[in-house]
UniProtKB/TrEMBL annotation:
Superkingdom of source: Eukaryota
Protein name in UniProt: CDP-diacylglycerol-inositol 3-phosphatidyltransferase PIS
A molecular function (GO) term: CDP-diacylglycerol-inositol 3-phosphatidyltransferase activity
UniProt region (Disordered), positions on chain: 1-44
Membrane topology according to the record: Multi-pass membrane protein
Length: 297
């Protein structure tokens, strides 16, 4: 073997020995350690999954649903208890929005839960008013239909035209000045919603106290009138139970003060439905124009 070959092998041996020293080190007690040059990568942190159903504003929403159901239970015969539960449920409607902003827990589920609860709560009260005053049932039925149609079309137009991440309360002034004021000004929104519900609560209380609106209350007082039917849930028994339950002064005051705001709220519902309809039609025309352009190509 030539001297040059021996020198090459010796150099390779030195390189291999140096590599072993780089990869392993021996402790004083003879145990082998892992390479010092390789640092252990930290374990990835586990992602915490939030439970949207237990967000604070959604918990308030569930409480509203419970109070509404309880108020419906007391609605036929106990006007004071029903009005109290119903009013607390409506007041919590303002609290859940504040909680959503305070805890940074605004969610699409919470917005839909809030709107559905509002619509169902008002509809249930109007259904009772329809039964209390059958002569005016078509008015109450029309108010239910307008309320549901207006808010459904507005939310659907917002989601389909504005995007899934856009709130139905984000209405530009260029699209509708009155809706912009209604949804962006928290004072206007609270006053309109609160007094609208207060008007219907006043009508509900008048059905228990005002013979002017409910002449059957006088008939229930008449001793010569035929006795109520045996069933406690019959129409006659309900009239007897409702007769002279409460004084009609404050219900008249509540109804009179809130009536103009209730009328304004219904006007806003009409504007909202018209604007949502036009927005949806704009989307239809844009899609049809795009489809025509594609066919032209």
């Amino acid at each position: 073997m030539s001297a040059r070959t021996r020198r090459q092998k010796a150099a390779l041996g030195v390189q291999a020995e140096g590599s072993d020293m780089m990869t392993t080190t021996t402790a004083s007690n003879g145990t082998a350690r892992k390479p010092l040059s390789k640092a252990r990568s930290p374990a990835p942190e586990e992602e915490t999954k939030e439970n949207v159903f237990l967000f604070v504003p959604n918990l308030i929403g569930y409480a509203r649903v419970f109070l509404t159901v309880a108020s419906l239970y007391y609605m036929p015969l106990h006007p004071r208890t029903c009005s109290l539960l119903y009013s607390v449920s409506c007041l919590l409607d303002a609290l859940d929005g504040y909680a959503a902003r305070y805890y940074n827990q605004s969610t699409t589920f919470g917005a839909v839960l809030d709107m559905v609860t509002d619509r169902c709560t008002t509809a249930c009260l109007l259904v009772f008013l329809s039964s209390a005053w059958p002569r005016w049932s078509i008015v109450f039925q029309s108010l239910i239909s307008l309320d549901l149609a207006s808010h459904y079309m507005h939310m659907y137009a917002t989601l389909s035209m504005g995007g899934s991440g856009k709130s139905h309360k984000n209405v530009e002034a260029t699209r509708s000045w009155i809706l912009h004021q209604y949804y962006t000004n928290k004072t206007v929104l609270f006053v309109c919603c609160a007094l609208n519900e207060l008007f219907f609560i006043g009508l509900y209380l008048l059905s228990f106290s005002s013979p002017i609106l409910s002449p059957s209350l006088l008939q229930a007082q008449d001793p010569s009138a035929p006795p109520a039917l045996a069933s406690p849930w019959s129409a006659g028994a309900l009239e007897m139970a409702r007769a002279n339950k409460i004084d009609s002064f404050w219900p008249w005051v509540i109804t009179g003060i809130s009536a103009p705001v209730m009328a304004l709220k219904q006007f806003i519902n009409v504007v909202q439905m018209v604007k949502a309809s036009k927005w949806l039609v704009e989307g239809d025309l844009a899609r049809r124009a795009a489809a025509q352009n594609v066919k032209g190509l």
